[in-house]
């Protein structure tokens, strides 16, 4: 999904996190013993199952709540989640696929210019925060969208938001502010 | 808790009102004390401390202290002040003092700044230069070196080296160069000790600076001239380089593709010829081809398959794969040409993504398979590709499907599930791996069952709280060991001191006295109590146990104020070890060894005290410590201690 301005920026979605419920109690030990690609973590009380086709890692709890991470698109997340539910069904549990929700989307984007972080922070005082001692990027939180953008001095952005649309909107939102504080290229 | 004004009129429940007032006042008082404590260690002036206290009052009134450690909040308030006043204090300093992870403090700090709407100005590395220069001891020329370093820093800023970097790293690099310019020999190690970054960072900064045109100037030129040209940030140039590399790689890949295209052309030609010669086998190819894929998966997943290396070269791979496939197919396979088919299937697997299964034995088959390696491989490749295409179809279906079952390839999912034999194997493995955990679970269940019978079963999950049994040990060392294992009960006792004492005082004290001897300090005069309280917090950490255990049995300065300082103390104190016996930790249970230190300790008591005092003063500006021996007042407190029962 690209913003609809003159510049075509590549927003690459790197991670989509989704949750869903199976509405039934799951026996983690059975899953651990009969599943092919599972890791059982008894101290955390969950099972990690990794799927290959959509590359997805799922944390499965015995209450039936499952968190799916590693997908590269919302559709893929849903597909992977359904596959997972099907696998669990085959293992013998009465699985129902309910309350699927994409919780977090992480995307990266690269500006064709470098950015002066200190000026950027000064212009956007309370919303943006920059602590070089702690993290090399300036963090810009958009409350209305519930999205966070991390701006690096090289011009790369890391955007996290609740869905893909929000991420695109966030980039559009922040682009003008960034181009104000851009550093003109010399070489 | 009352949220109203402190001076609210006393209403009906006067008792509660007064309590609420006190609680808030107490919190503020406590906070003030801690601020002063911490602030004086940082050498902040009174004005800063007052401002910090104001921040703290605001924080408390906004209830931001809830759920956070007071120490963190105090540190964050102090750091806020440092930032607004522009003092050269780093968050790292604060975290050093508190022994807390700097990122945790940073989180608290950011949150407070956000909630209090305090926009602190960004850190300027120039602020740190005078401080670090002072620490590096340039003597009279400190000012000059500082100025040079400042100029260097400004140059770095213009060259875009400073955005997104820790200011201390830049300072370090600037100071290092400035020092060399003024002919001071400061090694990288000196600088990193002062600046608190790691060597790699410093070297990287220096390299980056080297890349800028400024580095080409001589010293005099630098002082006079300021280059106009600005550079791009180094990570940006690195990024550009990466992009170029990727472009190059793409070109290479394209060329490779072309070459591969030629190879596949040849292959196709051979294929078509073979097709003409062997029409019948195609059907069987297809049948076998379908079986190959699931088998591949199963074989690769089976835990009993021992991983063996698969040669990357084509022919060897073909043979190896052929061998293993033959093992399984033998019963189903017709000899001769059919074997050629399977080999062909394996050849096809090269093109297909499935991993080549590990080869098994069967060298004799290789000889049979020797002739015609290429023939069958090409024939099967197409059928393998058909297989892959099937998978892709199933993917497409699942994307469009709406319900759970639609479009999900059951076969593929079944691959995710092991069959019975594999389940058994995996169960065994898992059981072995998690034996300890399973054992614990069993014990827990038994315990609960037993308690249910007794009627004392608690619903809450019990924490493994050990019963406080009186320590019965035959030797000093054993007693100490047992005590060390026990959880620390009182925070008002400096356990480390006691342990050392126990080892030194040794056989003189009988074993029952040993556990009670831990209570001696609290019975000391208030002056000592003050000291012990100071050590309260760090002693709570389990770190203390490990470190003091390691210095057990060595002659130590009697009072070691805190766990981390202990570590430093340990290294500092080792040179101060008296010639008394220093049994190592493993030899704790050696009764004879404590006796010689016994008498010697009396003599060198005051000596140890002096050393302790010196070291203490070196580390911190705190009141001089009293030696533990003096704390104990010789043996006269032994009797009193026995009367008290802290455990």
Automatic annotation (TrEMBL), chain A:
Compartment(s) where it occurs, according to its Swiss-Prot or TrEMBL record: Cytoplasm; Nucleus
Principal localisation: cytoplasm
UniProt keywords, alphabetically: Cytoplasm, DNA-binding, Nucleus, Transcription, Transcription regulation
Source species: Coregonus suidteri
Protein name: TATA box-binding protein-like 1
InterPro entries, per the entry: TBP (IPR000814), TBP-like (IPR015445), TBP_dom_sf (IPR012295)
Cellular component, GO annotation: cytoplasm; nucleus
BP GO annotations: DNA-templated transcription initiation
Molecular function in Gene Ontology: DNA binding
Family statement drawn from the similarity comment of this UniProt entry: Belongs to the TBP family.
From TrEMBL, chain B:
Chief place of localization: nucleus
Compositional bias ranges of the Pro residues kind: 352-361, 589-599
Coiled-coil regions listed: 249-276
Cyclin-like domain location: 33-114, 127-211
Compositional bias segments (type: Basic residues): 527-538
Keywords on record: Activator, Coiled coil, Metal-binding, Nucleus, Phosphoprotein, Transcription, Transcription regulation, Zinc, Zinc-finger
Listed Basic and acidic residues bias regions: 389-400, 436-459
Comp. bias regions, Acidic residues: 611-623
Biased composition (Polar residues): 504-513, 539-550
Chain segments carrying region Disordered: 339-410, 436-479, 502-623
Location in the cell: Nucleus
The keyword Phosphoprotein appears for this protein: yes
GO cellular component: nucleus; transcription factor TFIIIB complex; transcription preinitiation complex
GO molecular function: RNA polymerase III general transcription initiation factor activity; RNA polymerase III type 3 promoter sequence-specific DNA binding; TBP-class protein binding; zinc ion binding
Domain of life: Eukaryota
GO biological process: transcription preinitiation complex assembly
Biased composition (Low complexity): 574-588
Oligomeric form and interacting partners: TFIIIB comprises at least the TATA-binding protein (TBP) and the B-related factor 1 (BRF1/TFIIIB90). Interacts with BDP1. Interacts with MAF1.
Family as reported in the entry's similarity comment: Belongs to the TFIIB family.
Protein name: Transcription factor IIIB 90 kDa subunit
Native organism: Coregonus suidteri
Species lineage: Eukaryota, Metazoa, Chordata, Craniata, Vertebrata
